Every structure is written in C-alpha cells, then in structure tokens.
Structure prediction request, 295 residues.
Amino acid sequence: MMLAVGMTIGLAGCGTPPSASTAAAGSAAAPSKTEGSGGSKGTIVFSTKTITNNEFQRVMVEEAEKAVEAAGYTFELTLSGDELAVSKQVENIENAINKGADGIIIAPMDGSAIIPVLEKAKKANIPVIIADAAVEEGHEDLYLTYIGSDNYNIGYEAGKQMIEKIGEGKVCTVRGASGAMGGELRAQGFEDAISESDKVKLVNQQAGNWLSDVAMQVTENMLASDPDMKGIFNCSDGMLSGVISGVENQGLNPSDLTIISVDGDKAALDAIKNGKCYGCVAQYPRVIGQKSAEI
Prediction:
C-alpha cells in the first residue's frame, strides 16, 4: 500500500521561495559567471553522503547532474563515502569553497555540523541550495532555499496510517542517524501522531544510523524486549532490508507486523508486493535533484 506526501519546495531562504530566475537575489548572492575551459559557465558542486546502495541519493544526484549540464555548467560530485562520515562532508564542502565553486548543492548529513561551513560559503559569496534534509532552524540566511519533502508530515502520516491499520498495540521506530534532521523530523511526526491514540503506544525508538545491519540489530533488540510488537516505523528504505531481517531473526513473520517505511525505493516496493512491508510514504528524489540544480 502506497502513501504519498506532498513535497514542500523552497520552505526556507529569504522569506519567500526563490524562483529559478530570482534565486540569486537571496542573502548568499550568486557571483558573476565567466566561461571556463570548454565553454562551461562554471562549476556546480553536489555534496552528499554516498550513492552506493542508496537509491534515493543516487537518483537525486543523477537528476541534478542532468539539469546542471543542460544549463551549460560543469557538475562535480563529492561524496563522504559513509552514512556517518559527517566530518568528511564538511571537509568536502570546504574544499569546494576553496576551489571557487560557482554554486553548491548540499544534502546535509547533520543539520547542525554544517553551519560553520555554510557561513564560510556565504562569506565567499557562493550560493548554496539545501536538498533533501533540512538545516537546524535559525540559520536560513546562510542558504538560498531548501528543496525537500515535509519530513515531519511524512512521519505524521505514517503514524496515522499505523493507528488505522493496527487499531491497538505497541509500536516502535527505527530512527536514522543522530543529527540528521530529515530522520529526526520523521520520527517526531510519527511520535506525535501516535500520541493522539489511546490504544496505540510507541514503546521504543532506536537509531539505525541509515545502515541495514544496524537496523537489523536494533530491530532484534526492540522485538526481544517486546515480542508482542504490532508495528514498526522505519525512517528510510535504506534500512528496510535490515528491519525485515531483524523481524525474521526473532522467529517472526514480517507479514504479521505492520511495517511502514519511507522513500518508495524499488526494493521497498518489492517488499510490499511480497507481503513483508505494509507500505511506504513516498518521496520524489528526481524532483528534489532537478529543482535544486535549476534554482
């Protein structure tokens, strides 16, 4: 069963969402462009964690690259290489600033850790777009705009669907990585929705760190503590295979639990078809990547 949540584009920035033609008018104004070697108008850098075994990030990056190159710019991808390598992402962004990138798109791994480097980009007059995961509130002046899903509403809608499906019982959450605002907001939205029910109780939450093997371990731990668990909210499809394995390792059938995940990756859709996952709240990585690059 597929759930859908509307994507909120351009939530942050200078009060109003900039259009593609006015994006440079924000607080981090775009520098003038001069054609480089090969006729390129300049270099746009995309910083994210990894595209290995991460369909969402891969699709987002591919669509951004198409839009950048179609506009006559050079696309440069910098990867941290690991789901938790926050310091590497900060280093990659600093390198892009030092090399004089004409624009930077960032999918933040930690919404607080990147604030100092965003300040450096602003001082260097390099426009920054935040994609997919938000930055800590109060720092909207450091980037042009945010392109991504309403992550709180993702969790809230998942929670309402969970209540409707199970009626009553215990549920738990496999969170993302600490500091990753997208996952934190999803978990909070789910918790708030569940709190509105007198019969469904959220009894445990543990971080899966966006990794399937960690998600498997924490799922096993939570089910061992509460073997009568009725539902699991999983904050990203990248961890879904681990959640399913964790359920099976406890001698349970995934189809007997209501597992709701986030993203709508192909592997997750296959799990739904096979009866091992109840549903996903779908996101739109193609649109996020495309719009980030266009702005």
Q: What stands out?
A: Residues 177 and 209 are 4 Å apart (CA to CA). The longest strand covers residues 200-207.
